[in-house]
Every structure is written in C-alpha cells, then in structure tokens.
C-alpha cells in the first residue's frame, strides 16, 4: 500500500470521526489506532437498511470507536430491490457489481485493508469477493451460519413470504439448468454430494469459488490465504440451513460427516484454507441456537478479538475445535 493512500484513508476516517464528535488520540509518533472499515453482507430475505444490521454496526462502533461501516446493497438505496436480489440474480454479476462498488468507494478503497462480516449467504459471497477481487483486501472475515459447502435444502420461508416461496419452488425445479443457475441465488450454492456430477457441471458459483473443478484458480487460494482471520460460526441448532455443518466446510453425504481437514479441498489446499490454518488464522466457532440467533456478546467478542486498528496483533488459533462439529 502506498503511503499516500494510507494518509488519504486516515484523513477520511478522521473526518468521519469528527462528524461523530468522537474523542481520538492523534499522535504522529504512534501507530495509527483508526479501526479498519467494516463491510457487511446480509443474508437471504434481508435488506441493507434493516434494524438488526444497524445494531450490528452500532456495536462495532461502540467496541472500536470511529469504525466506518458499509453494508452491501444490490439495489442501491431501494430496499425492496436489495431484498429481491438476495433471491434472484446471477451471483457472478452480483459479485462483479460489489467488487466495483468497493474498489470505487472513497473510504474503503483507500483503507490499508477492511474487515468483513457475512451473515448466512452473505458469508460465502464475501469469500467470493476475497477470492476473486480482494481490492480493498480483507484482513478478518467473520461468517455466521454461512453455506460454505453448499446446501441440500433451505427451510427459510415465512408463511406469507411469496417471494421466498417462489424462489424455493424454482430451486427444486431443474436446479442445475442454465436458466435456474443464472437467476436463482440459492441454486448457485446448492450442492448435493449424491448428485455431485450435476453440481460440478452446472453450478454457477459455489463449484467455482470452492475450486472443485479440475482446473484450479491459484489466485483464489492466494487471496484467501492472505486473510489474518477467517472466523466461521456454526449454529448448533440451525434448522434453516441444511446441513448446518456446511458453515464449517464439513461434507455431509448421507450419514457420513467429513471434517474439513479430512477433505481434499483442505488437504490439497484448493482455496488456501490449509495455508491459513498453518498460520493459526482459521477459527471454528459455534453458537448454541437456531440460524442467526447471535448473542450480542458474540458480536462484541468478534469485533474485540478480530477487528479494530490495522496495526494490532492476533493470537494464533490453538483451541480444541478441530472442524469436526457433529461427530462428538
Ligand atoms: C482466476 O481468478 C482471477 C481473479 O478473479 C481472474 O482474474 C483470473 O482470470 C482467473 N484465472 C483463470 C485461469 O480463470
Ligand atoms: C452470469 O453473469 C456473468 C457476468 O456478467 C456472465 O458472464 C455469465 O454468462 C452469466 N451466467 C449465466 C448463466 O447467465
Ligand atoms: C457421496 O456418497 C455416495 C454414495 O456413498 C458416493 O457415490 C458419492 O461419490 C459421494 N459424493 C461425494 C461428493 O463424495
Ligand atoms: C456489547 O458491547 C456494548 C458496547 O461496549 C455494550 O454496551 C454491551 O453491553 C455489550 N453486550 C454484552 C452482552 O456484553
């Protein structure tokens, strides 16, 4: 990163903090304690301006005062278009749009790095952002209940959510046709190990960013391995995401559950997870509760432990979690 860019970033974030009248300790001789900006990508059926997301941003700012929070929207300022884009659209094109928006953003693009929070499908999409674009580069990625190894079913729709129900009926119809793959968002991370050939052949998103096809893209692995922290939260009582183990990249094939470290995607390091693990940056976490039941304390800890100033240090992972949830 060029020094001029860091300075521009500092100036902009300080301007933001001044507006918010937050006390800051400015001393040219000390490392900059400005927290990195945070990018949030929300889940299926949510909107960028939802109350819950606002609270998440407020917590982040309470833990690291002066945090600039950017929430991804695929509908500009139109919340219903943004919600609709969580169900319908071509994820490749959606990611291209987000890559462009982040790279052109005056604050994000001049920061030395950003931190990122992905809720549910937003988690694998942010991972896609890192693998494919990563400008500005992500330092810490936290994903909550994300479908990193795909889904075989999604039980997400409210009783009167016709948009959701319409999407889900389409999902079950000819999932891997080009028609469905270019239009229905959840279909693009649908992955049934029992029907693996169809997935490899037709998946528009997941098979690509998981580098499961014969020709691997090295950039994907290099970019993901550049993370300092990849924190993956799994909801122990998740009844929405099937199988819930997908949040830890576990393979569930019938009754067989294969932990990430026993899978080729890790062992042959298709996407950089092994390299990241070697440096202590791969972090398995679980939450007691159903999908997206995130205690405030967990958000607080996530921000405190993995986000904040650029120059902070992180403890390498040494915990007992071994990516084997569900087998104990
Ligand atoms: C690999 O991914 C990068 C980043 O998206 C892209 O620029 C490049 O063209 C891809 N390489 C191949 C061989 O597809
Ligand atoms: C999805 O969008 C990408 C990028 O715009 C495009 O290249 C691709 O052909 C689209 N896929 C389908 C199946 O329409
Ligand atoms: C899942 O299990 C079935 C039957 O045991 C097997 O044929 C298939 O190859 C497995 N799928 C994967 C992706 O390993
Ligand atoms: C989370 O952090 C905020 C801001 O410091 C604090 O007000 C709140 O009590 C914390 N919540 C929990 C459950 O610790």
Strand proportion: 5-15%
Counted up, domains total 1
Helix count from the secondary structure assignment: 13
The assigned structural class equals alpha/beta
Q: Could you give the distance between the termini? A: 45 Å
Helix fraction by DSSP (H/I, runs of at least 4): 25-40%
By CATH, the architecture is named 3-Layer(aba) Sandwich
Main sheet: strands, sense, barrel: 6 strands, parallel
Spatial strand order of the main sheet = 2-1-3-4-6-10
Number of DSSP-assigned strands = 10
CATH-assigned fold name: Rossmann fold
Q: Rough shape?
A: globular
Instruction: Report the uncertain regions.
Output: 1-26
Give the mean pLDDT.
88
In N-to-C order, the SSE pattern is HEHEHHEHEEHHHHHEEEEHHEH
CATH class: Alpha Beta
Protein name: Palmitoyl-protein thioesterase 1
Organism: Clonostachys chloroleuca
Family: Belongs to the palmitoyl-protein thioesterase family.
Enzyme class: hydrolase
Account of the 3D structure:
By secondary structure, the protein is an alpha/beta fold. It has one domain (5-24, 31-306): Rossmann fold. Helices cover 36% and strands 13% of the residues. The chain has helices at residues 3-19, 51-63, 79-87, 91-104, 121-132, 162-171, 178-181, 196-202, 206-209, 218-225, 264-267, 273-278, 296-306, and strands at 38-41, 69-71, 114-119, 138-144, 153-154, 229-235, 241-242, 251-253, 256-258, 282-287. The chain has a 6-stranded parallel beta sheet with strand order 2-1-3-4-6-10, with helices on both faces. It has a two-stranded antiparallel sheet with strand order 5-7. A two-stranded antiparallel ribbon has the order 8-9. Helix 2 (51-63) links the parallel strand 1 (38-41) and strand 2 (69-71). Helix 2 crosses helix 13 (296-306) and helix 5 (121-132) crosses helix 10 (218-225). The N and C termini lie far apart (45 Å). Bound molecules: 2-acetamido-2-deoxy-beta-D-glucopyranose (4 copies). One 2-acetamido-2-deoxy-beta-D-glucopyranose binds next to helix 2 and helix 13. Belongs to the palmitoyl-protein thioesterase family. This is Palmitoyl-protein thioesterase 1. Residues 1-21 form the signal peptide. Pfam families: Palm_thioest (PF02089). Its EC number is 3.1.2.22.
């Amino acid at each position: 990163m060029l020094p001029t860019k860091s300075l521009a970033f500092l100036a902009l974030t300080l301007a933001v903090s001044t507006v918010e009248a937050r006390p800051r300790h400015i001393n040219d001789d000390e490392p900059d304690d400005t927290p990195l900006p945070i990018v949030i990508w929300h889940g299926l059926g949510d909107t960028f301006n939802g109350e819950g997301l606002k609270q998440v941003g407020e917590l982040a700012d309470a833990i690291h005062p002066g945090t600039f929070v950017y929430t991804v929207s695929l509908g500009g300022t139109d919340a219903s278009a943004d919600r609709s884009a969580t169900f319908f659209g071509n994820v490749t094109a959606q990611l291209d749009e987000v890559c462009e928006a982040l790279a052109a953003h005056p604050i994000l693009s001049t920061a030395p790095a950003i931190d990122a929070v992905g809720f549910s499908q937003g988690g694998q999409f942010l991972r896609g952002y890192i693998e494919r674009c990563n400008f500005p580069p992500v330092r810490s990625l936290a994903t909550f209940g994300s479908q990193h190894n795909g889904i075989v079913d999604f039980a997400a729709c409210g009783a009167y959510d016709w948009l959701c129900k319409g999407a889900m009926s389409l999902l079950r119809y000819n999932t891997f046709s080009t028609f469905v793959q270019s239009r229905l968002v959840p279909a693009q991370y649908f992955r049934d190990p029992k029907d693996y050939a169809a997935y490899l052949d037709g998946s528009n998103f997941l098979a690509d960013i998981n580098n499961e096809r014969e020709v691997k893209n090295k950039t994907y692995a290099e970019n993901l391995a550049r993370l300092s922290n990849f924190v993956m939260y799994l909801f122990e009582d998740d009844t929405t995401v099937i199988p819930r183990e997908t949040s830890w990249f576990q393979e569930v094939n019938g009754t067989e559950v294969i932990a990430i470290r026993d899978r080729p995607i890790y062992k042959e390091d298709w996407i950089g997870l092994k390299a990241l693990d070697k440096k202590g940056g791969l972090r398995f976490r679980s939450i007691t509760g159903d999908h997206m039941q995130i205690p405030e304390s967990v958000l607080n800890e996530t921000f405190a432990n993995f986000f904040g100033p650029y120059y902070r240090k992180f403890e390498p992972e040494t915990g007992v979690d071994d990516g084997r949830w569900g087998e104990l």
